[in-house]
Write a structure and sequence with these properties.
Structural class: alpha/beta
Number of strands: 9
Shape: elongated
Oligomer: single chain
Distance between the termini: 54 Å
Length: 279
Amino acid sequence: MKIAFIGTGVMGAPMAAHLARAGHHVTVYNRTRAKAEATGLAVADTPAEAARDADAVVTCVGNDADLAGVTLGDAGAFAVMRDDAVFIDHTTVSADIARQLAAARSLCVDAPVSGGQAGAEKGQLSIMCGASEAAFVRARPVMEAYAARIVHVGAAGAGQQTKMVNQICIAGVLQGLSEAVRFAQASALDLNKVFEAISGGAAQSWQMVNRWPTMTTDEFNFGFAIDWMRKDLGLALDEAKRNGSTLPVTALVDQFYAEVQKMGGGRQDTSALVRRLPR
């Protein structure tokens, strides 16, 4: 397939590379051209140039405004995309803009991902999709190049809402894990033995298995940044106001993350939440 990939940051660059390795013809665009050139793939000067004559256009940018900027308007991808081309967005954005873009194009999929940079590099992402059945069927062969799990959740916007569910779950787990680490340290326990004892039982989680060792040694300069997590939790809290749900723990953890940002931890991994608890 001829594919345009817009947004070649820490997630987008390895995803575009997987598409090229799968045999697709990939043209990339990034606001910072040097990041696009670093992929070694063909580089376009505008989103529209990348998208012209493409079978699929994939985006992985920053937020609602960034997504609107690369899709809408004269220089946006939508201005030149063929009617039979599928649009796939992997950005974590609001359900509102996902529905807006789907209203503009019938073959449109909101497809936020989970798995972080490591998942993108290994081609093992989990993707949650909101789309019509026709759009999902067209998009799936593209996403299979970098995904371990692809789930069609529902109509336009459902993918973004599912990503909000994902982040709500992670926020609660990381607060509990932070408290558990500090409790174990205060009890002067052997942290490796504690991990061995509890990581195979009901308390086990992805965060525990992958972050317990680094949280106990104060290593946070990797992974999914707190700045990004606060953006995602803000989307969830805004959506909760619209659908009438209550998210008291999520709102509390969001404020805890704000404290870590003030401590200079905005670009650290979300497990740096433990920093706000005294040793």
